[in-house]
Amino acid sequence: MSTTHTTTGTWFFACKTTDVPTNGGVCVKYNDEQIALFFFARRNEWYATQNLCPHRRQMALSRGMTGTVQDEPKVACPFHKKTFSLKDGRCLSDEHECSLTTYPVKIVDDRVYINVAEIPVMAEV
Amino acid sequence: MKVVVIGNGMVGYKCCEKLIARSASSPLELVVFGEEPRPAYDRVHLTSWFDGKTANDLLLAPLSWYTDNGIRLHLGDPVMQIDRTHKTVTSYKGITEQYDYLVIATGSAAFVPPVPGMDKKGVFIYRTIEDLEMMKAYAPQASCGAVIGGGLLGLEAAKALLDLGISNTHVIEFSPRLMPRQIDEQGSAILQHKLHQLGLKILTGKNTREVMGDEAVTGLQFADDTILPADIVVVSAGIKPRDELARACGLATGPRGGIIVNEQLQTSDPYIYAVGECALHNNMIYGLVAPGYEMAEVAVSHMCSDHKAFTGFDMSTKLKLIGVDVASFGDPFPAPDTCHSIVFEDKYKGTYKRINITPDGQFLLGGILIGDAAAYNLLLQTARNKMVLPANPEELLLGSRGTADNGAGVTALPDEAMICSCENVSKGAICQAVTDGHETLDDVKKCTKAGTCCGGCTPMVKDLITASMKAQGKYIRNVVCEHFAYSRQEMLDLIKLKSLRSFDEVLDHYGSGEGCEVCKPVVASILASLWNDMILDKGNDTAQDSNDRYLANIQKGGTYSVVPRIPGGEITPEKLIVIGEIATKYNLYTKITGGQRIDLFGAHLSDLPDIWEELIAAGFESGHAYGKALRTVKSCVGSTWCRFGLHDSVSFAIQIEERYRGLRAPHKIKSAVSGCIRECAEAQSKDFGIIATEKGWNLYVCGNGGSKPQHAQLLAADLDSDTCIRYIDRFLMFYIKTADPLTRTATWLNKLDGGMDYLRNVVVNDSLGIAEQLEAAMQLLVDNYKCEWREVVENPELRKRFSHFVNAPADKDPTVKFETMRAQKKAAEWK
Ligand code: SRM
Ligand SMILES: Cc1cc2nc3c(=O)[nH]c(=O)nc-3n(C[C@H](O)[C@H](O)[C@H](O)COP(=O)(O)OP(=O)(O)OC[C@H]3O[C@@H](n4cnc5c(N)ncnc54)[C@H](O)[C@@H]3O)c2cc1C
Ligand code: SF4
Ligand code: FES
Questions:
Q1: Do B557 and A58 touch (CB under 8 A)?
Q2: Which residue of A has its CA nearest to B546?
Q3: Considering CB atoms only, which of A59, A76, A81 is closest to B558?
Q4: Residue B34 Cβ contacting ligand 2 at under 6 Å
Q5: ipTM over 0.85
Q6: Which CATH superfamily hosts domain A2-115?
Q7: Is the CB of A57 under 6 A from ligand 4?
Q8: What is the pTM assigned to this prediction?
Q9: Domains, chain B, ranges and CATH?
Q10: pLDDT of B399
Q11: pLDDT, tens digit, for every residue of B759-773?
Q12: What is the 3-state secondary structure (H, E, C) of chain A?
């Protein structure tokens, strides 16, 4: 796994852009962490969040359905359809639910990089 | 003004309500005595106590209503005496109250014929909640029931016995027909036939001579010397007005009971009124609630020096008796020389309709509707408002709801037309409420009270709401979500029109934004229902609901289940062995499902293609357990082995399952085929179910198990196999085209205007002229069917999608944990 160091943290190479389905998500492995990566083809925007859904602690968000609400990008967990903002990770369908950690994403040529400076140590799942 | 009301039943309560409504203008002191232990409740819906309504649900108003309005309510304390000279009443507990006006609303008691043995244990009457409680307590020890009396109340009581689990129940009627006051002989014959089908046995022309048994009832002996065994008996042979108080204080009563009243409901003492079932007006006791409410209105207005008159009330009623519509309105059977009757009978469907019109054909006098009373409200209004009939009055009977001119009926009514006769609400009042912004049924009910009593006028109130909103240029839209301003049905038509094939194209043409978890599956399902392309193609994979996207159901912990199709539940030993071997190899939990097949649980995402590759090699295909699609067609063993089997239900189930496999719809679809009426495949709980008959197959549709079970209804009888399949094609396609998202067939039917009759017309009689189109659309899907798991297994690009980590495809999700139970694995408990 190749990683690049920048001043603000670690950009690591996740996958090729073509590995990610249009308007869908994949799960990226980074050491012991799982990151959900999403591609919004219509707006050419990329988002990354933790893969763990805080609701029932399921490693599933990358398999969730993406979309927008009032133009805000979001993902719906496949288990119980809780929805989370991809901009700031807050739960849109339940104000008492925990927020997701989000990560910056950048594309260089056809390569996707995720910035993991702020990856917290995840509690055991 | 001080008013005392004796009796806190339905009509007594209505008097209080009316008095309170008028008390703003003149001060009022109101005292009520009730004999029953609880405040007034809805006696009309007494029987719903057996389907789960509690005594509290049935209350017309909570106790607090009386307190809040300053009413002194004495419950469980009957009045024992009226002293007309001093204008006082005295109760059982010794309370004496003085009155300016007294209202007697004591109702009636069940009439118990003077037959020996009526006092035995196990003989009940059916009038109060206490009666029901006693019946319910006794029922567990009973197995055969009898109801004496085949009138309206008797049939209600019979329903109660069925609800109590006493399926062997007889109704005994003295006269030669059921409901002799409301319906004629021909109508009774149809009603009897229908009730019979529902499991109720009917004996007419039977005169009960004795109730048999020592201490408890064991049977009934009739005048013709026959005997009917029965260990629970309900007597419902008529009502007897409770006029005992009136009699004792010297008020005029009728020779056969009832307190005589004039048009203002005054008794022979002008300070005493009598209303409801205890009042005898013009030689008539009214055993229904609507005339009682009208009496309350007239009596109260008279006390307040307002002059209204009670000039009689027609006995029109519409009921659902054990699921069968029965209505009788106006004059149901006038003398033959004063009218001319049009009769329509359909023995097969069990409907009977009769209307009586004036000899000049101008006006409607009354009529009878059995089996289908959808036209009741309109006919009743036509008769009541003396509306001139159309040139062909038979259209009143034959023109069905749900056709293009639906709703035209209510528009034609005059504003004064009484829509809710229980609460006296006119068409004008309802339309006004809508104009004032009350645009939902609940709102209109709250603000006008229409439809809050017997509920019979609810369909008409709904029609009026829609008609008034249309008249104001409003249109109620049922759109998918913020991204598409169309209903599902509109979307389907648009997508078809433009031949769109992917979610993206649809969004480009008709939507905005990016879509969401609501509209994506809707569009994906429509695309699949129209074209049956591979659902993961054309970028549609990410528009599929998560289970469809991975062609498997996601489980607790993030693994998936594998459900191969086992058509009709038939499987060879060799295939069973393969399933066993695969389950062992991939360490899968196995279980026989409720749908006659085998589910393998706990598969890692990345194992799915390998598992399916092996299953497909052994001749299996996808079971679509993950899709809003055809699930299983259950079968019973049928004529190949079963001694009762009429036809080969397994072969037919397999044929049907293979025809509709992979068919995607607004919700999942289930089916079953039974080889005879014993129904071991439970076909009547399915979206479409087939039962063998001597002559062919009976086709039932729109059944549902699940959280709100509903039995399927007969669509057509005695079909040959080809016709049966043609009807299923039409039925399913029509459902697919018109249902809202995530609506099972049962719910769809419940919302369909015109209901089953309309559906039958479309499917069987091709009333919309679309049958051929529906069949062709289905054939296209059948021809395009491919096993989607085979396509994935054979396509490396699609296979690639089935890995947990995009950057480590060989790794499984390390967080998946299992536990062990009864020698198999299970998902670890989640937190
Ligand atoms: C496996 C099975 C239970 C079993 O072990 O027997 C099952 C399992 C599930 N059922 Fe079921 N149902 C199963 C038979 C039934 C039946 C019985 C039948 O079909 O004869 C019913 C009632 C009959 C009916 O549907 O009318 C049934 C009524 C439901 C419902 C309620 C549907 C409703 O209209 O109320 C749901 C929820 C839904 O579909 O929205 C549901 C949903 C589910 C889901 C899909 C819930 C989910 O989304 O995870 C379960 C997934 C199982 C899995 O992971 O594979 N399941 N489910 C049965 C699979 C049958 C099969 O071979 O395909
Ligand atoms: C099972 C069933 C189904 C029915 N279905 C329908 C239907 O579908 N449609 C329809 O229109 N009608 C129906 N009815 C009839 C309807 O319920 C009655 O017409 C209505 O309840 C009459 O109201 P009421 O106030 O006159 O009498 P009730 O409701 O009987 O009230 C009289 C009250 O007065 C009390 N009372 C009597 N004597 C005294 C006393 N001395 N002091 C104090 N209190 C006293 C009684 O205990 C009772 O509570 C049905 C009735 C039954 C039993
Ligand atoms: S009944 Fe509920 S718990 Fe059982 S399988 Fe069906 S959905 Fe799951
Ligand atoms: S686990 Fe994600 S919504 Fe429940």
A1: yes
A2: A78
A3: A59
A4: yes
A5: no
A6: Rieske [2Fe-2S] iron-sulphur domain (2.102.10.10)
A7: no
A8: 0.55
A9: 2-107+242-304 (3.50.50.60), 110-240 (3.50.50.60), 488-544 (no CATH), 545-627+801-830 (3.30.70), 628-786 (3.30.413.10)
A10: 56
A11: 999 999 998 889 999
A12: CCEEEECCEEEEEEEEHHHCCCCCEEEEEECCEEEEEEEECCCCEEEEEECEECCCCEECHHHCEEEEECCEEEEECCCCCCEEECCCCCECCCCCCCCCCEECEEEECCEEEEECCCCCCCCCC
